[in-house]
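For this section, I looked closely at a protein sequence along with its fold in token form, which I now present.
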Amino acid sequence: MSLLDCVEKTTGPAPAWSILWLHGLGADGHDFEPIVPELLRPGWPALRFVFPHAPVRPVTLNNGLPMRAWYDLKNLDLDQRADETGVRQSIAQVEALIARENERGVPSERIVLAGFSQGGAIALAAGVRREAPLAALVGLSTYLPMGSTTAAEATPQGLRTPVFMAHGSHDPVVPEGFGARSRDQLRSLGVAVDWHTYPMPHSVCAEEVRDLAGWLGQRFQAG
């Protein structure tokens, strides 16, 4: 499998940690580049941010138009929303990027897997299936795809990974209820989910970035 093309930003020499960040539907790896300076805090270790570009594929609910997507959307129902073939392909591509970070000297326990919307769905789905747990998972304005299948395939190690989830209360694209249902499902499996809501649409806000920075800082201290 060839590695996805990525945008990379490092915050210092010899990064000790990596943050792999997956964009949303129709965006690309440049979408969250601007978050790096907003997120950083004094005293953090050197980080490598990796922003991969999703493959281009036709998206059924967008009239079959090809765009960057981690999976096809064929149905708006939460349980049927994500195309299983695409989800599994994207999980494999994320695993290849994690393996590259391991080869670069960053162990899995110092890798954060984050994503927004579709990217967050893949981050959650990949993270709870891992045999070697990551430092943390971040799912913004998203949901757990293939809920019952993902629950059945989750590993004890993956379920030990702490999760930060955040959602807009005015989100017309991925309703807040989808995120809340996924939060509850993850918690029922024993996952420690830190849940936040903000009065925003399908987007990211400054308060959310501040809360995420504080939460990530705790992970870096623990690691």
Notes: The chain has one domain: 6-222. Strands lie at 6-10, 17-22, 47-52, 56-59, 65-68, 111-116, 136-140, 163-168, 193-198. The mean pLDDT is 95.
